[in-house]
Input
Amino acid sequence: MSTVQYRLQLGKKQEIVEGPDGADVVVFIDTKDADLDPSVAYMLGKLKAEGSTGALIDELRSGRAASAISKLRKNA
Output
């Protein structure tokens, strides 16, 4: 299983981070877009990722991305 780090952008130079440094994929999403389905947000260019595309697709398909983003949003 790949490692994933999620970064919820709160504002300029402010973010909440969950996941290990050096992860296989790093997912970025702005707070205002966090209510979107992550797959839709990715297709709209609102969710960005660096690293393994395969790992990102696995996260989106499994629902883990939606769960992680929802958790971060609640902590914002």
